[in-house]
Amino acid sequence: MKLKKIVCIYIPHIFTEAEYHKTPHKRPIIISSGYYEKSIILDIDPSLERYSFTKGKYLHSLTNIINEKKVDICPIDYDYMDTVKQKIIIFLDNFSPVVETEGYSRYYIDLTGTQSLFGRTIDAVTKIIKRLKEKYAFSAQAGIGRNLLIATTASVLAGKNGVYEIVPLSERLFIQQLPLSLIPLFPASIKRLLSMDYNITKVSDLFKLSKDEIRPIAKAHTKTLYNLSRGISRDFLIYEPNKKELKVEIIPEAESNDDSIRKKVSDTLFETSLELYKRQLIPGIIHLSITYHDSYQLKYRIKIRNSFIRNQNGLYNTVEPYLTKALKRRTHIKIISFRLVEFRKTARQLWLFPGFSDNNNLSDAITSIKKRYGKKLIGYGG
């Protein structure tokens, strides 16, 4: 079994860096949830960290510095941040088939088994950090471990533009020596309670306690705290299928015959396949709707095989039997509508081949091997 290589890429000041990229400022900036006194501070320019205020506090704690006009207060622009987040995900898609996110500042990728593609994991992640700085002006840091907890914690300790890898042999020692204050993604109120009321300041202090002993202290967070003390965490990433859809409509000309309609559909679906190929996406379902001039409609829900995009006519071949059935009705077709849904990422090995012609050659080769040696000997990655 391959050793898991989960990577957490952490951009601690993504809000301020994104704002500087969008709008130049002469003074340091503070990103807040609004302009009101009880608005929350979301991010602070690193040059302001010498002051006592921190993220999570109310804006009114900055009254003096605001009155002296030493900073610019910038309310968060979530629409812009959603665009930034999507750009980062698309960039990271080049390295991992699954990108999981935690808010706007943490991005998880799985580089397990990619050494032949990208080299050593720590070198590949160093390049990613460097590219994020060059391409988007983000100062990121990263942690590598066998699960999300180890990777996330390592990313906090990595430092600006740094990469920190924790190997399995040393991870228990690493986790147990950590102060609770450095553990990310865990409520600060519980950390304060453990420190002030129970004198528990390090993870090793928790290791002495059973789950039943932790429960009265942590209550709803019992499982999280117990797993934390033992270094237990999820070692796989969750991919949420893209719920967006792609719509394509074809309006045949009045004098169109069956052959011209087939050609129009074939050409349109080829262009669609090419676009999906570029995005490295495979739709799971096609909803085909055919409307005739007498308002009669045919509707089909067609499941798409994994291999459709490996051939330039894959989409057309999928819908061709249904199109043939529709053309048998001797009434002129008014609109042919395709709705593609349930998109997912395809196997990364396929994208090592640069174009459709190579994929056709690959498909032909696999077909020949199956015919000669049996269907179970070789197949496509899914």
Folded structure, characterized:
The chain has 382 residues and is of the alpha+beta class. It folds into three domains: 166 residues, 2-Layer Sandwich (Alpha-Beta Plaits); 57 residues, DNA polymerase, domain 1 (Orthogonal Bundle), CATH 1.10.150; 101 residues, DNA polymerase, Y-family, little finger domain (Dna Ligase, domain 1), CATH 3.30.1490. The strands form four sheets. The chain has a five-stranded mixed beta sheet with strand order 5-6-1-7-8. Strands 9-13-11-12 form a four-stranded antiparallel beta sheet, with helices on one face. It has a three-stranded mixed beta sheet with strand order 3-2-4, with helices on one face. A hairpin with a 3-residue loop joins strand 5 and strand 6. Helix 10 crosses helix 11. The chain starts with 5 loop residues before the first strand and ends in a 9-residue tail after the last helix. About 3% of the residues have low confidence.
CATH architecture designation of the largest domain = 2-Layer Sandwich
- The overall pLDDT, averaged over residues, is 81
Poorly predicted regions are 348-359
Q: In total, how many domains does the architecture comprise?
A: 3
How many runs of DSSP E, i.e. beta strands? 14
Give the DSSP E fraction (strand runs of 2 or more residues). Answer: 15-25%
H/E series: EHEEHEHEEHHEHEHHHHHEHEEEHEEH
Distance between the termini: 19 Å
Spatial order of the strands forming the largest sheet? 5-6-1-7-8
Helix share bin: 40-55%
Biggest β-sheet, characterized? 5 strands, mixed
Secondary-structure-based class equals alpha+beta
The CATH C-level name of the largest domain is Alpha Beta
> Going by CATH, what is the homologous superfamily of the largest domain?
Reverse transcriptase/Diguanylate cyclase domain
Might you state the CATH topology name of the largest domain? Alpha-Beta Plaits
Radius of gyration, Cα only, in angstroms? Answer: 27 Å
How many helices? 14
